[in-house]
Amino acid sequence: MNIFTKMYDACMRWARHKYAVYILGFISFIESIFFPIPTAAMLAPMALSTPHRALSLAGLSTVTSVLGGIVGYLIGALAFESWVLPAIEEFGYLPTYEKAVVWFADFGVWVVLIAGFSPVPYKIFTLTAGALSMAFLPFVLASIIARAAQFYLIGGLVKWGGEPMRHKLRQYVDWIGWGFLILAVIAYIIYKYV
């Protein structure tokens, strides 16, 4: 079954769409506020489909993500109790939010660097930074560094790998996809029953 190869081919087609760059910028912006799908999920196929533009796509993702983070910060600062907290509870992010509050108390601005670079939901930290009245300039600087590091790492790897990487990845995408799916099921079972 080559379901992942078909998905990969579809992603490559979508990544070359004439509005793909605008969609990437929009997704990167809203992902920093509320959108559940990470920017990397769109940046990686777009960079793979056009490796010569990988670094400029990383730059676009960085700028729009940081701008979204600033909006998230402002929403957290101005509408946390009335708007953000009910949404966090509704979408099941309350435990993540509570951890974020503890991490902000323990690590300060460093937590923004970690959240902006890692797969931890960055949006929780943008909203929490505003709600906790974190100093704005350190928040923005940490966001720029972290988001740029993540997106330029993706863009740089794709640019370095170029066209051969795209073809090699397509060759093994079904093995990779099934492997990740099996690992996810095992992790879920361990988490749920152990």
From TrEMBL:
Signal peptide: none
Pfam families for the chain: VTT_dom (PF09335)
Domain VTT: 57-153
Cellular component aspect of the GO annotation: plasma membrane
Domain of life: Bacteria
Classification via PANTHER family: ALKALINE PHOSPHATASE LIKE PROTEIN (PTHR42709), DEDA FAMILY PROTEIN (PTHR42709:SF11)
Name this polypeptide is given: VTT domain-containing protein
